Amino acid sequence: MDSWQLRPARDLALAPGQRLTSTRREPAWLSTLSNTCWWTLMRAYLRIVHRFVILGRDRLPQDAPFVMVANHSSHLDAIALCAPLPLRLRARVFPLAAADTFFQTPRASLFAAHALNALPVFRDSGGKHAFDDLRERLTAEPCGYILFPEGTRTRTGEMTTFKPGLGVLVAGTSVPVIPCHLEGAFAAWPAGQRIPRPRRLRLTIGEALHFEDQPHDLDGWRAVCAATRAQIVRMAGS
Q1: Residue 204 belongs to what H/E stretch?
Q2: CA triple 117-119-123, angle to 5 deg
Q3: Could you report the per-residue pLDDT of 139-156, keeping only the tens digit for each?
């Protein structure tokens, strides 16, 4: 058994505003309480409004590290992937959210950080550096991430190509990737619609994928993304 060690929080030296938008942010008691309340409400919301169905529940990760990924068509997607996870993992599971959408204002940052427990991903030249930090944290902490490798919501309902960030996180590591397919989210809340409609959601959870043998370079990242996308496509057609 590893010996217990006391270490300072990664975000200890950051100012409050910087802490909200940092990939090194750690949950405090307020965010843990807010997060627990939020996900309790979201579980009830999904069950009542969207008649949420989960297939393959036994494949849900029971401990960290892991990365859960899925097709991306709606703001409901992260809610649907996070809600079924064990509550004991809640403080260590971080949806990776676009900084220019979820962390654009102080109010949005407060909600994303304290309710969703989200970490920002900057979709610009600084994105690679952020993913390097996230990769280190994934195995060192360890923790779990919710990630949508398309990078943005589909505008047609069809799954688009995967960006290499997923590969940056897991190539050459023992971190499992949990592929998921979400059906019904595009009909319920597509991009451009203000409020969701009461459409049925179905989440299918696939077998974990492992990429220890993939090199931590561009070719390896692309291979990780291609294999994961192909698995989700198969799940969508089953």
Answers
A1: strand 202-205
A2: 145
A3: 999 999 999 999 999 999
